[in-house]
Each structure stands twice: as C-alpha cells, then as structure tokens.
Amino acid sequence: MTSLPERAGRRCHNVINPLHSTLYFAPDLGKELAPYGVEDPSAVYLMARAAPLGAVGAGAVTATFYNFHHKLVARFIPEAWEFASPDTVIAARLRAADATLRRLLGEDAIASPEMAEAARLTLRAAEACTRPGRPLYAANADLPVPDDAHLALWHGATLLREHRGDAHLAALQQAELDPLEALVSHSATGKGQNPKWLLATRGYNQQDWAAAQERLRGRGLLDASGELTESGVALRKDVEHRTDLMDRAPYEHLGAEAVERLTELASAFTATALGAGAFPSDLMGKG
Fold this sequence. Notes:
Layout lengths: L7 H14 L5 H7 L7 H10 L7 H8 L4 H7 L9 H20 L1 H4 L2 H14 L8 H7 L7 H26 L4 H10 L6 H8 L3 H13 L11 H17 L2 H6 L1 H20 L12
C-alpha cells in the first residue's frame, strides 16, 4: 500500500463532494418532487438525503444529519413519506442528478473518457468504505450503482461524502461540539457556510446562534467579536484531523497515484460546475 501525502484524502474529498452536493442547490430536485406535493425546500432536502434510510422517523433523521434542529425535521418527517415513498424519492433524486450534471458540465464532459475514469476511481475508493457506525454511508451503499458514468460518479461521490460525514459527526461529538456549536465554529473558520444560509436551512434563529456563540466563548473557543481563538482554531483543526484518520481507508485503498489522478479529474469537473453557477455566490464565508 502506497503511503499517501498528508491530507491527500481530504483534498480529494473536497473536490469530489461538490459533484454530489450541487444537487441540493439546483432546481431539478424540487421539480422532480413537486408532482408528489413536496414543495418546501427543507422537505425536498430532508427527503432526498434520508430516503436511502427508508421511511424513518424524525429522530433517526435528526441523529444522522446532526446539525438540523429537530423541530424543523419533525415538521416534515415522517409525514413526508405519505407523499412520496423512499423508493420514489431515490428514483427522483437520480433523475435530478442526471439533469443537474448534464446542465452544469455539458454533454461533452458527460460522455468523456475522463468521466468514465473518474467514476471508476471513485467507486474503487468506495470499496474500502465500511458500514459499522456509518448509517448514511451504509444506507447509500445498499443502492445499486447506476450504469451511466456520470451517475456512477455521482453515486460514488455520495458514498465517499457520507462515509466521511458519518466519521465527522463522531469527531464533533468527541470535541463536545453540539450541533449548533459545530456550525458556528465551522462558519467562524471562513471555510463553512455563511451564517445567513445556515440559519435559513437548519431551523435555528438568531437567538439560538447567539447562545451557541456564548457557549463557545465560555470554553475559550470564540472571542468577543465572534472569531475563533487560538484554542478554537486548534480544536477545529483537531476535528478535521480526527475525521481524516477515520476516513483514510478509501484513499489508502486507492493509492497515492490514483488519488492524485482522481483529485485532478474531480477538480476539473468541479471547476466547470462552479463556473456554471452550481452554488450561490454568497454560500460560503463568515458573512
């Protein structure tokens, strides 16, 4: 097994993940679910991401998603499954992924040998992912791999995203960061979503946000201006390092050369998607 350069797995993940997550910011997913009476954007997101788990209740979704307010989840789950079954939603999200990637990347990229290569490498990496303790990854791993290369890449990106995400939640809990403290501290790094977007999509309000900031100040992790202290920076770095350790298997399985190649391929596709407006311009940053 070839030793990987430091953070090679994280860098690879960071350029693969947008190929999955652009689905949640595109209009296609909502269009696919609207005929079933699912129109609220929060319901669309919660159902699309939770569907592989089956017709679960609000508690399971809150637990596995971690940083969504339970009251927001319970507004839609489990009632939403009466509008569209999990199998219906899974089929709808794959159609939406197809439409989204075709629009953002273009037909030439969809049909390219680079797309097929990226799909093969992503799925090969996912061979080393493990199910125990990773419910969202495990649920998606039970789904069939699509035949089309761009959808196989999307599926593989989903597996790698949820595998890392499940590990990340364990790291957050070990750091004793509750769901909103995790969001506030990540946003304060400048690498997370803008607080405006987090408050609009996670079910929290300004008072909740301020209370979480105060808790972090009480631990010496945030200063009076809302910036991370040295201790806060160190804690966030430790969370990412611990996540890297728990997520190293897929990239070690792939090997250093193939990880570098997949990073190169995914970077090009992600750059194209970003250039086509895959995400809102004000999505990231401290606000």
